[in-house]
Design a protein that fits this description.
Helix content is 34%, strand content 24%. The protein is built from five helices and six strands. Strand 3, helix 1 and strand 4 form a beta-alpha-beta unit. A six-stranded mixed β-sheet has the order 1-2-4-3-5-6, with helices on both faces.
């Protein structure tokens, strides 16, 4: 495994590139970017899939999304959909600089809440030749199901933002309110 980093604008994103057992830098390997579950870091679920894929001859990249894990960005632990999608694009940019990545054999594996981010990225990321899914989840729909009174939630969010611009303390809620 190689520890790597790349930039998403001003944020340093940190990842692990899982390598096949017979890896040599002179090879050209099929490569997968893993879009991992919401609030997950590179050593968790994505690492299990990445290790198994590497055992089958793939390079497999897991990374801590912007604002999470070893990656930079403030506030910490922010689940920012736009940043997550751009993280995927930036991960591809970084992979394209590695001579052992087969540019014509690049895929995207979406896992759980990472599924929504991955599909959004794949809409415009033509360097992906394949997209696969494991337990895909639409995080937006899931949150709408968890928040039955979305209208009141939006009012509360607006009130909190107003409070913060007037110097109030930031509010931090758990991702899973259950």
């Amino acid at each position: 495994m190689k520890h790597i980093s790349f930039k998403n604008r001003h944020i340093n994103v940190v990842g692990n590139l899982h390598l096949p057992p017979d890896f040599t830098e002179s090879g050209a390997y099929p490569t997968l970017v893993l879009a991992t579950p919401g609030s997950s870091v590179k050593e968790q679920v994505g690492a299990i899939y990445a290790e198994r894929l590497a055992d089958r001859g793939f390079l497999a990249l897991t990374f801590d999304p912007s604002y999470q894990g070893e990656s930079g960005g403030e506030p910490r632990d922010l689940e920012d959909p736009a940043a997550r999608v751009e993280d995927i694009h930036c991960a591809v940019d970084s992979l394209m600089t590695l001579p052992y990545v087969s540019e014509e054999r690049l895929g995207l594996l979406r896992i759980c809440a990472g599924g929504g981010y991955a599909i959004h990225a794949a809409l415009t990321e033509r360097r992906f030749k394949a997209v696969g899914t494991v337990v895909a989840n639409d995080i937006g729909e899931a949150l709408r199901q968890l928040l039955p009174d979305a209208s009141q939630t939006l009012v509360d969010v607006g009130n909190q933002r107003t409070n913060e611009v007037h110097g109030g303390r930031p509010r931090r809620d758990p991702m899973d309110p259950g």
